[in-house]
Amino acid sequence: MNLRTEDGQALAGKDYEAKDMILTLKPLERERHINIPVKNDAEWAPDKDFMVLICDESGEKLIGDDCEAKVTILEDDKPGILGFEERQINVSRKQSKVSVKIIRTDGSDGKAKVTIKTIKADEDMVEGKPATADKDYVPFQTQVVLESNVIEYVQDIELPDCENDTTDVYSFAVVLEDPVPAGVKLSKRATCYINIEPAEGNAEIQAENQERDKMLDYFLNNQDPPYSSHFKNACILGPSIDDNNLMDDVTCGEAIMHLLTIFWKCLFAIIPPKNMWGGWAAFLVALSLIGVITVLVGEIATVLGCSIGLKPSVTGITLVAMGTSLPDTFASKTAAQGSQYADSAIGNVTGSNSVNVFLGVGLPWVIGAMYW
User: Fold this and answer.
1) Sign of the C-alpha dihedral, residues 280, 284, 285, 286?
2) DSSP-based three-state secondary structure for 51
3) Residue boundaries of the structural domains of the chain
4) CA distances from 233 to 11, 85, 215, 268, 275 (A)
5) CA 260 to CA 240: how far, in whole Å?
6) Using alpha carbons only, what angle is made at residue 250 by residues 128 and 234, rounded to the nearest 5 degrees?
7) Helix axes 280-308 and 321-338, enclosed angle (nearest 10)
8) Cα dist from 168 to 171, 195, 203, whole Å
9) Between the CA atoms of 58, 60, 62 and 68, what dihedral angle is there, to the nearest 10 degrees?
């Protein structure tokens, strides 16, 4: 028989070495391993595939689904995530330029390109008034190229020498757009706000900046608080710090939800920190609290169903099911937001329902069978 490769998205000579060979199986030989070398480089590219065909001596493909195989070349290069080192930069009007640094995280394989440009700042996102192009700053737009293994790039922005005795702060924004190739992503720090402060300084502005820096340092140093601070932190409502060390202010909806759920926050504050006993203490205490809450939900649903005249079966598939499934829904939502793929969210849904069916129904049945 004849074995040969056929190009798909992957091209012979560029992505893999082509094969076109005659195979002769000896008597009683049931299988043969064929190695097809795959070429690797430092540049990111999407997954590509090619076909391996079994043909007759004339080169015609044999009939049958098992006479062809699709080989997918998975891309394992990580071109990285681009963003600014700082979300906000304060600069004096006396300065002739301001420098912003682009950093490349989570990989630096291959060449990465991104467009950087200045735009008018959104008034709701900055402290000062919108700056005017060509008056307060020199607008520009250019494409930045980061070569393989280069993880940072500094871009200078010119500030024109203008006479302005105002005590106001003027702001503009610098944004990153259109990353190339497709594997390059933009982080949450894809926008940097530049605040141009008065030349003579402003004591009130400087005091606000110092207070903001102190608050950010406090939250960064207390991301893993000790066990003794759990109850205090459960009662306090304040800004939060995301994965990029950006401070998110409290919204009105978050304040209302905090007041409505403060009892449950204080109750679950007894869960030990995750670094105690290798995480087992937190796991066991949290599991016990979830069991207690589940029992309470079931009892309340039973009493409510009895009060309004619902049958136990209807109560079980409506009120009880809703009360026990809502926590799983929120857990799956959090898992989906925090992971690149939906594996953890789907695993949580299927796993929790499997436990409810097999353990929640099976264990009482076993106990009942043993008792009776």
Assistant:
1) positive
2) strand
3) 1-77, 81-201, 224-269, 276-371
4) 58, 29, 15, 12, 18
5) 19
6) 145
7) 140
8) 10, 10, 12
9) 120
Structure-token match 């190695």, residue found:
35
Domain 81-201 class, CATH top level: mainly beta
**What is the distance in angstroms between the CA of the first residue and the CA of the last residue of the chain?**
68
- Residue 46 structure tokens: 């999407």
Burial class of residue 212 (count of CB atoms within 10 Å of its CB; 0-12, 13-18, 19+): middle
Q: Which amino acid is at 159?
A: L
Give the type of residue at 118.
T
What's the CATH code, domain 1-77?
2.60.40.2030
Tokens of 217: 């340092």
What tokens appear for 227 in the block?
């066990």
Q: Under a CB-based contact definition with an 8 Å cutoff, are residues 175 and 117 in contact?
A: yes
Burial class (CB in 10 A: 0-12, 13-18, 19+), 97: exposed
Which mean pLDDT values do the consecutive 10-residue runs of the chain (372 residues) have?
Answer: 87 88 84 86 78 84 84 81 87 85 87 91 74 87 90 89 69 91 86 80 59 62 67 73 58 82 83 81 85 79 80 76 73 76 78 76 83 80
